[in-house]
Amino acid sequence: MTDNIHYSELVINTFKNSKELVKEILTKYPVARDDDTILILYCMKAQGFNVQANKGVFSIKGTIDMLRFMKSFETLTRVRREIQNTDGILLPTNIDVANKRNIRQEVIRRYYRN
């Protein structure tokens, strides 16, 4: 039972740390508010990965240990959604992105209701 409590606390702390990281990235790089791929690349860079981009081509360098301990893409995008949809802050800068996300969310919601 104690292991479950410890693990639960670890998950909550990881989520809180991820949320702070994503808030920092969304604040510093507004383009990341519109594109989860860009958000993930900036988050990887903040976690110590060497991320290079040039003319639409990018490379990522890091170690296996860095990969093992990095925050998951799913967590980062989930946190971005919470910040934007629940907290109502650091919203997309492009209205088309916001509209497409709202439409997608509604389509998925309807699909799972049926």
Number of domains: 1
Mean pLDDT: 86
Number of continuous helical runs: 5
Count every beta strand, where a strand is a DSSP E run of 2 or more residues. 2
Which strand order spans the largest sheet, edge to edge or round the barrel? 1-2
Strand content: 5-15%
Residue share in helices? 55-70%
Q: Over the alpha carbons, how many angstroms does the gyration radius reach?
A: 16 Å
Can you write the helix and strand succession as a string? HHEEHHH
Distance between the termini: 38 Å
Largest sheet: 2 strands, antiparallel
| Oligomeric state, counting identical vs distinct chains | single chain
Uncertain segments are none
Q: Structural class per helix/strand content?
A: mainly alpha
- Overall shape: it is globular
Compile the SSE list and pairings.
Blueprint: H1 2-28, H2 36-46, E1 50-54, E2 57-61, H3 64-69, H4 73-86, H5 95-113
Antiparallel strand pairs: 1-2
Helix pairs in contact: 1-2, 1-4, 2-4
List keywords for this structure.
single chain; mainly alpha; 114 residues
What does this 3D model show about the protein?
The protein is mainly α and 114 residues long. The chain has one domain. Helix content is 68%, strand content 9%. It has 5 helices and 2 strands. It has a two-stranded antiparallel ribbon. It is globular and about 40 Å long.
